[in-house]
Hints:
single chain; 72% helix; globular
Amino acid sequence: MADQKWPFVPAEKSLPELTTRVIVIGIFLGMVMTAANAYLGMKVGMTVSASIPAAVMSMLILRGFRFKDVSILENNAVQTMASAGESLAAGVIFTVPALLVMGIWDDIDPLQTFIIAFLGGVLGTMFTIALRRVFIVEEALPYPEGVACTEVLIAGEKGGSGLVAIIYALIIGAMYGWVVEGLKVTKKGVHSVFEFMGTKFYAGSEMSLALLSVGYIVGLRIASFIFIGGILGFGFLVPIFGLLHGFPSEPLGWDATTMGEWHAGPSYYAVWSGQVRYIGAGAMVVGGVWTLWSMRSTIFTGFSKALNFNNSTGEDEVLRTDQDTDMRLVLSVCGMILILSLLFFIFNLGLALAIAGTLFIAAVAFFFSAVAGYIAGVVGSSNSPVSGMTIATLMFTAALVFVVGSLVGANNETMMFATLMIASVVAVNAAIAGDVMQDLKTGNMVGATPWRQQIAETIGVIVGAAVIGPVLLLLNRAFKITITHCEDANLKLEGAGTPTSELYDCSNALLAPQADLIGTIIESIFGGSANVEMLILGGLIAALLVWRKLPVMSVAIGIYLPIELSAPIFTGGLIHYYITNLAILRTDGSIREKPSNSAMKAADDVTSRGVLIGAGFIAGESLVGVFIALLIVTPKIGDPSLWFGIPQLGQFPTLMFFMWFVGVFIFLTALSLPKKIISIGEEIILIIKMSILRLYDNILVKK
């Protein structure tokens, strides 16, 4: 679709968009996606982006039931509503269950969870409405999942070879996800820790087709900076810390082939999560501040334009595809949310902390919405480190609460509760912001009416907020959320004289690693052991990157994310680079400084083909992840990996299995390449030589 002119549906053309059937199907899919991703996030600490799976499911439902005159804009509205719940779930599950870890709640409170999700979700949606023009129109950030979702919607609309390609890719991605995540025949990744020069080093990668596809979509430049951040954090700073301070001892019974949470081994992981992760969080805070400061004029201009755009001025003056929600209404809703937040905090925290918390939200929520929207535009919402931003929020919130709480004589438990309640609203606000921007990018490309899509997003947020509380309550009563909370619950039951046979089996407890970490952080802060040094170090690294004019946020994200996630993204970027340069080489006969127009068209064609295949892989793997989560929580069905008792293969077969699918990805993408002029070996040598020369020119020659 290299020659596709955007938007797909012209501004002068009007199609059905926010219809009754769209709202009904969107609410249903939103409930399913919220519930499934809440479980998935509790179990493994990551959620899957619901935009692409929702787009596929929307097409299947709307076209499968043979509704008449289904438009691409209706499909887009459905996926917008359905995907809102997934991001809302991420913001809630990373924070609210920490109240269980800290022992403040004995069980999930559905009403308070709904209020937190509602306040943060609606506020995040409103802020990103104001930022749409800045990031999507003015800055034109890539938003990889938004672009991939567009490819899915257009392929479904056009049919033909594009639709066939995405269906094949979806099936292949689903097969891979079922084998790896469902049956667990192969491992999720290949990992190794080895000792050298008195410390430990890690090498490994997640074997994820979805992450590989994200890397292809964002391209090599962004993918490489994320990978550099991963090398700096996971591959350099962890060994340095271990050399200077030593590593914790490994737990009894652990062996080097154990996977699960401890991909790099418990001691290596402990240093990364307890020390280096804070460096990434500190770098993201400074990077976020710098990003907003450097874009201040663009943000001001975009915000001013948004304020001036009023739908009442007449549709002849403002194109349909430029009609945002009236900014006066957006500001009114923001004001209402702040008033409701104040009342909510007064009821739970008292007047002084309520005023401080509301002012804090008013001051920083827009900042984190902008940062989350920007990060999602770079690496996608699936890989947006919401927990990293949550940690940064916690630090600021804790400092504020400590000062105000000390003045009014609040005890430690009250201050811990206040910190998490305030930070949760900001975290949900940031989580939803990234998803909204992805959806609005898709809408911008397909030709949606922004204000209609923004209404769909708001409905989806409210549905997700209503569902997330009861789902967490159910999961906690069925499995117990976090081992820490499970063990504390058993201690209370034992104290009450409960027989051992009736205690909870904590081996089945959901890990909820982010919530567990955040609960521990808050307890350590109010216990006087906050890791301020690492946060400052992260800020200094970010300042150095800003000074050298490097993309600070991409590197900071890489420091925060474990390198096992950065590696497949980088691999996807490399494939993109090689394939596009191969298209240029085969068209021009050489790789020139300025390729011909025909060569650029060939490169665009193969890039679009790869994005389409990648979108199918993401959709297939994500849909299977949601399906597996539903199977596990369904009584009498359970975990598919227990159905057949198939033994799990080792690391080398896992690597070979993944590489075969990588080969399939390259093969399907390369089908749109021009015919060979020289041998494949000569092509590879020429591209590598050209890459080295470009690297030398950019790093060693130019300042």
